[in-house]
Structure formats: structure tokens, C-alpha cells
Amino acid sequence: MSTENNKDILKTVTRYAQAGEWDKVIKEYEKLLQMDPNDISLHNSIGDALAKIGQDRKAFEHYLIVLKDYQQKENLSKIGFLYKKIAKLNPKKFDLEGKTIYEKIVKIVEAQDFFYKGDYSKAIPLLKEAHKMDSKNIDVLLCLAEACEKQMLIGDAIEAYEKALRLYKDIGKINEAINIAKKIINLDKTNIEALAMLAEEMIKNGEKEKAEELFKDIFISIAEQNAIQTGIQIAKRAMDLSISYGKQFYAYFLFKDNKIDEAKRLLESEYELTQEEKVLLGKIYFKTGEYQKSKSMLLSLEASVINESEELLEQIGDVFLKMTEYKKAAEYYLKAFLLLKSKNMLDEAIAMANKVANVDSENIILHENLVEIYTKKNMKNFLIEEYNKLLKIYEKTGKSVEAIKVREILNKLKML
Predict the structure, then answer these.
(1) Whether 214 contacts 193, CB under 8 Å
(2) I need a labelling partner for 223 at 20 to 30 A (CA). Which of 120, 158, 401, 415 fits?
(3) Which residue in 198, 129, 135, 138 sits closest to 164, CA to CA?
(4) Which pLDDT tens digit goes with each residue over 118-136?
(5) Are 326 and 320 in contact (CB under 8 A)?
(6) What is the mean pLDDT of residues 51-58?
């Protein structure tokens, strides 16, 4: 049949529809359907016409073809309108499977109707049930989120908005996803997923510097929350957008996810590493037993960076310990111990003292500082034990004056 015939049929359809002659409309639609059985809009129109003359079962069959197409093509925005049409049908002559589908759709439409009427207390449980039945229905999620927000159920609202955000992202509706992200941030200014969406929007708007600062804050928050899988996903997106810190944090989260080789390859591919990337690669080399490489990488850091971090000092000490360079290990452990003490992190300092003592049990500086710590913490038994160790070291090294003072202190302590 020619294109002209097609146009003639459509003109005839319009004429019959205006006259309300739906039987004739349907016959004309069936001619078109023979020409193109896969025309979804045509199935939709036939369904509408059949519904007008009470042929609900046939209408339902055509609507289901339309529904399947919308679902396969993730045309989620149109599903809500189709549900409303289906809910108006009479299911009396439907088969069992059709009735089950119909009942599900009616419940979803009913839940949304309560929402639109402003009856949020009834809408919320029904919308939650509707979401279980149709997890990809964005309209249901948005109704649920807004209803929860109106009822001050902020956690539930954020959860529903987050699900809607992911669905929009999955089907490539970025503008809609960004609008949802803004709603989430209004409720939770620290929400990682929503902040990442806004950072990506900044990139598109040419605000790369702002985006980089926001991404940095996001990565730090993710690391603090130990949300490794989220970190991997967001850092990968940032890396692909050429964001500073993107590759570094992607490698970091891979490392935390025990994907050591992948993280190592990523960092080794860099021509020039940042201080943070050197730290991470040094840790990776330690993890893979490449101690010489770990030592070289970590010691290539600026001295100020090393000496201001008890974590780095300890890590370098661990490297030297593995290489059986005990004197050097003790040196870095002691620096870490003293730094912790200077920050008044006394319990952590005591733990670090054990590492020093394991490789240098007679270190005078260690024991003198432990005396100060135990005195400050009023740990009498530990203090006496420490003074006894210090007394032996003083006597062994010929520090007679210091030994006399320690004996006097011990005598006083034992009398208390």
C-alpha cells in the first residue's frame, strides 16, 4: 500500500472519530496495523478506540503490547499515563494472568491518586507497596519521595529520591537526574551521589575549578565512610572527566577493594606522581612485598610531609622492619611515637611504643617519654614498671646521677 493510501486512511480515521463511529475507526486502524504491525502508537490508539466501545479485553491486549515496548525501551515517563488508562478497564473477561497484571496496575494508580489528593498518610504505605511491584516506575518513586518529605520522613524521602536519581541516570535523562540531585541536597547537604551529580554538571557548565574542589570533598567523605564501591564508581567518573584527584582516588579505592594489581598499574602508568600518589604506591609496593620499591617511593616524599604524619612514619618503619634494618625501623617508629605524644594522642603513642621496644628495647628517649605519659595518665603500675626499665638502662649505660634520681622516685611511688 502506498504512502498516499496511508494518509487517506488517517483522514478517514479522523472523520469517523469526530463522528464517534469507533467501530469504523477500529477497522481503519486494523488496515494500518497490517501495514506496520510494530507501530506502538497505533496499538495505543486501537486500545483507546476499543475501550470506548467496551471491548476492554481487546483494548488490554493492545495496551500490554505498548507497555512491553515502553519497558524494553525504558520509556518510563509514559508508563504512568498508560497505567491510568488500563486501570479504567473492566477486567471481568481478562484471563488469570491478565487479571494479576491489572490488579497490580490498579494498586499503583490508587496509590498515586491518594498522593494527588494530598492524603499522604494513606499514600505512603501504598506507594511503598507499589514500588515493590514496579521498581522502575519513576512516577511512583517521585510521589513517594514527595509524600515522605511532606510528612517529614526525611530518610525515606532521600531513599526514594536516590532511587529515582539512579533510574534517570540509567536511561540517560541527565537534566532530570540533576533536578532530583538538587532535591536530595536540600534534604541532605552531604549526600555523596547527589553531590557527584552536581559536580558533573559544573564540568558541563565550564566550572571545572569548582567541580574539582567539590570532587575532592566528596572523595574525602567517601573515604571517611569507607564506602569503597561508591568511591570506585564516582572516582572512575571523575578520572574520565580529567578531574584532579580522580585517578589518585580511583587507585586508592581499588587498593581498598583489594584490587592491588589494578591500582598499581594505574599509578605506575603516571609520568609524574603527586605526593599523595607516591604514598599510595608506596603502600601498594609494601602490600605486594616489594619492600625496596616501597622504601624508595616513600623516602622520595618531602621530609616535611613524612615528619608531619605518624601514619607515614610508621609505614616507613614497617618497611625497614621487613628489610631487617632494625635501627632504621626504630628511628621512624620513635618519630611516630613522639609525634603522637606531641598531639596528646597518648593511647596511640603507647601502642606505637611497643613497636619501638620490639626493635630497640633500651631506647632511653622512648622510656623517658613513656614515664611522662604514664604519669599524665596516672597509671601507677605501668609507671613503676617503666621506671624500673629506665633504672636498668641508666645503670647499664653508666648514667649514675639519673639512676639515683630514678631510685628515689621509685621509693616514693612504692610508699604511696
Answers:
(1) no
(2) 158
(3) 138
(4) 999 999 999 999 899 888 8
(5) yes
(6) 83
Most confident of 71-80, 133-142, 228-237, 338-347: 338-347
Burial of 257 (0-12, 13-18, 19+ CB in 10 A): middle
Distance CA 25, CA 9 (A): 10
Cell of 240: 574520565
CB 183 within 8 A of CB 161: yes
pLDDT digits (tens, 9 = 90+) for 366-402: 999 999 999 999 999 999 999 999 999 999 999 999 9
Range scoring the smallest mean pLDDT among 58-67, 174-183, 353-362: 58-67
- Say what angle helices 208-225 and 246-256 make with each other, to 10 degrees: 10
Q: Assess whether pLDDT exceeds 70 at residue 2.
A: no
The pTM assigned to this predicted structure is 0.62
Task: Identify the three-state secondary structure at position 302.
Answer: coil
Angle of CA points 108, 57, 114, to nearest 5°: 20
List, in order of start, the domains of the chain with CATH numbers.
1-94 (1.25.40.10), 362-416 (no CATH)
198 phi/psi in degrees, rounded to 5: -70, -35
Supply 194's cell numbers.
547527589
Angle, alpha carbons 335-341-344 (nearest 5°): 150
In the chain, the amino acid numbered 258 is N
d(CA 103, CA 67): 15
- Residue 360 to residue 144: CA distance in whole angstroms: 63
Dist. CA 390–CA 392, nearest whole Å? 5
Which pLDDT does position 120 carry in this prediction?
Answer: 92
Supply the DSSP string of 329-373, one letter for each residue.
Answer: HHHHHHHHHHHHHHTT-HHHHHHHHHHHHHH-TT-HHHHHHHHHH
Q: What amino acid is encoded at 212 in this protein?
A: E
